[in-house]
Amino acid sequence: MNSVLNVAAAMNIEDLVDSYYDDVFRVCSKFVGPDGADDCAQDTFVAANRALAKFRGESSAKTWLFGIAQNACRNYRRKHRWTVPLEGWHATESTDGLIDASALREALLKLDPDIARLVILKETEGLTYEECAEVFRIPVGTVKSRLHNAFLKLRRLLCETETTR
Amino acid sequence: MNDLKAFLDGELDAAAAGTMQARIQSDGSLAATAADFRLLSGSFAALTAGPRVTGREKVLEAIRAPRVTVFPWKFATGLATLVLLVAIGSNLQKGGGFVGAVVKSEAAEALDQGMAAGSERQAPSTPMPGEPSPGNKSGAIAGDESIGELRAGSPEAENSLYAEKDLFQRKVVRTGALTIRVESVEEAETKVTQYVDGVRGYVEDTSSQNLNGTTPSMSLVVRVPQNKFAEALATFEKLGTRLAKDTQASDVTQQVVDMDARLKNLRSQEETYRAILRTATKVGEIVDVQERLSGIRGEIESMQAQRDAMNKLAALATINLRLQQRPPVEQATGGWLQDTWSSATGAFSAALQGLSVMGIWILVYTPIWLPIAILSVWGFRRALRA
Lengths: 165, 386
Hints:
Radius of gyration of chain A: 17 Å
Oligomer: heterodimer
């Protein structure tokens, strides 16, 4: 199904909603919090519906939608304060040996919002560097360096948090 | 070092990955960092559950609903722009306008183009015969024509002073004073003389000062026909830069009428005394009547001279024209730097002036575009929500 949707000519907005709404909603909820996720997801698909004719299929439909979602979330954030990413999320598996979700959230909040979104998209959605570059419209090299620096900073922040405890 | 995260994410090619692997094995701190990065990635990856997915139906409804074409903000903006352009265009047609306003205000324009504005200080508020009506700035309309227009155009005019035109021609003495800065006094004088000759006027008096100096000037007393008064002022203003302007008008109709009546009376008395003189037989009576006749004749001649002078003044307007030559421009000592500075500051000043004029236009038209803009934004947001 997804491979078909990658071809612009075969794309139908309702098919896109069926296939990617959950992914887009999830990403939006990570970007703006659960309260604004459905608004942003709706804005994403409405914008995608308008821009469908211009989509040339150079990237995957999922990446394209994530790019639109990223803009929708940015617009949403202009009207609302920078809400907590990953709010309402928790580790379902055993957290032994893993970092606590709330600590992760605290650390993410201290990052630049764009960087935090990049980290979330990469780590929770499993996008490749190239896909991240398409979503954020930045070079792959920039994705690489931003992710590396973000992880260094997260590591330092989490170490500081650990020390204060 | 920057490749560590990319290595852990499997984004490096085989060669770079091999190199990084070797470095991690040999460098303990790098290995520790790599371990922490893995831990972080694993912790993110474990966050697989999230809030319940909602809003899918809402999205489908929004997509399936026909696109509402609300009062579009683009259309509204275009409409407002059109209104503004029409307003500016109509103003430009009138001769003032957006660009003209930068150079010259409406008030100054009115002052320039019609001497009526200046003469209104003493004359009645409506144009006098031989004076251009507000709609006609050429100043070439004859008095009878303008009165005809007045009568046809406004009923009030019927009751105005001009209704008396049938009984007698109104007499208005007009004077104006104009100071102009010109490039060359001699050239300007020639042009003034040519113009005055062309309109059947004359230069009554000329005096010049400092003709061989750096700032020569010349004063001329120019007489032009009444109906050419405004045109003459406008023509003289074009000789250079107007420095000062003053116009006055004085209605002497009543005085002329009084003089005519008194003259008629005196002539009647003269005839009576002449009749008495013809029938007088005594020397005493004859001498007495002749003395009276002589006095009356003197009065008649004096009054006739006054009336003629008044008529002459009323027939030709007087313009006291002073021409001042522009002092020679000092050679710039600052060279290109000063020139550039001067032209840049001048241009900046003009740009500021232009922006101010634009701001005033926008401000004045606020009642038109602001409600449209507010409605547009409201409609646009409503459309988005829909």
